[in-house]
Specification:
This protein has 4 helices and no strands. The protein is mainly alpha-helical. The longest helix has 30 residues.
């Protein structure tokens, strides 16, 4: 068995004829990233910059884990959830570092 026969793409036959399902998977990653762009700045103000940057670094590992889960998940819903969480966690690092740099440069 090739390695790609264990992925959700192969199990759910998400090839050329299922364009809407593939578009949903890409779209849900963007939705997770957009929500993360609102959550992490709020977290910066709530718990402080240093703690939120530590959480952002941890979310980077969660991002990698969620992408791995999304790739090897055997059902479509699990793949959507993995992509959403990957987008949510991936956007946290960028927004937290951007806010920290802006605070540092403004002083």
């Amino acid at each position: 068995h090739p390695l790609n026969s264990y992925t959700a793409v192969d199990k759910n036959y998400l090839y050329c004829d299922k364009k809407s399902e593939r578009t949903q998977i890409q779209f849900i990653f963007g939705v997770g990233a957009a929500i993360g762009k609102f959550v992490f700045p709020f977290l910066n103000d709530l718990i402080g910059r240093r703690k939120s940057i530590i959480i952002s670094f941890l979310s980077l590992f969660a991002f990698l884990l969620m992408h791995t889960i999304a790739i090897y998940e055997n059902n479509y819903l699990g793949m959507l959830i993995g992509q959403f969480c990957a987008g949510l966690c991936g956007s946290g690092m960028l927004s937290s570092i951007f806010i920290y740099v802006c605070d540092f440069c403004s002083k």
